[in-house]
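Need the bound structure for S-adenosylmethionine, inputs here:
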Amino acid sequence: MEGWKGGLATPEVADRKARVQMRAPTIADWHAQFARQAGWTQALRSQLCRRAGLLQAERVLDVGCGTGAITEELAQRTRGAVIGLDIDPERLAFARQQPGRARYEQGDALSLPYPAQHFDIVCCHFLLMWVGDPARAVREMARVLRREGTVLICAEPDYGGRLDWPDLPIRQWQIDGLRRQGADPTIGRQLRRLLVHAGLVAEVGLFPARWDVDAGVEDSEAEWFWVRYDVGEAVDAATLDLAQDRARAAVAEGTRLVYVPTFYAIGKFT
Ligand SMILES: C[S@@+](CC[C@H](N)C(=O)[O-])C[C@H]1O[C@@H](n2cnc3c(N)ncnc32)[C@H](O)[C@@H]1O
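Answer from helper R.:
Posting the output first, comments after.
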């Protein structure tokens, strides 16, 4: 992006340096982001849960539940017991403060603290990108699943397919930033391999996307908070400011577009 980089030498842009002070996200910020993501996936996620027989399930596990953004929703749609498991005690404490019937337990997705063939549905939502060894996590999900049960990988993104209008270099910034955080930014395309290697028959698909004319300014500002968080120090503040200004202008004009392909997968033993 030559023209893009060339624009950075101007005094106007240099003045913007250090304008944006990135603050550390609070647990409330994390929950707001998780709830936002859960909103994007809600419609298709509901269908997947219905297909997995959530209503009749006796035991359901939400692996990497975070602040419980989807866990209580699962609990409201079944008569069975729903456990949310996460490795992060602060997120679990937040989840436990919310009203509802889901139960929350601390544990590692790479070594699930449950016996084999214990759950009717084992699901996760935006977990595998972060887990370090996603193949092992999916094998663990399959191990604790009853033979007739369903693994639901509700949503995993693939930033390698990110598209932006205006045509800003955010895709590469975010891929590099996520890798520095230890995440796998191209996890989405790997779901089929992960399920098949865990001995499961896989159905894999993509979430549809639609851009309304009034796609929210607020949503765009929230998106930028997390882009800046992912990118960290690797891109200087003035460059990020300029990119955000261009994105804002496009939002104001109604032409902004962001697409991150997000995959789902259903796994069964037969
Ligand atoms: C992006 S968040 C998603 C949270 C939640 N599933 C949601 O969609 O709102 C990923 C979660 O995975 C958890 N996590 C990462 N590695 C884990 C592991 N090895 N075992 C259990 N949880 C893990 C993190 O603590 C974090 O809460």
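Comments: The domain at 2-268 is CATH 3.40.50.150 (Rossmann fold). Strands lie at 59-63, 81-86, 103-106, 119-124, 145-157, 163-165, 201-206, 257-259, 262-268.
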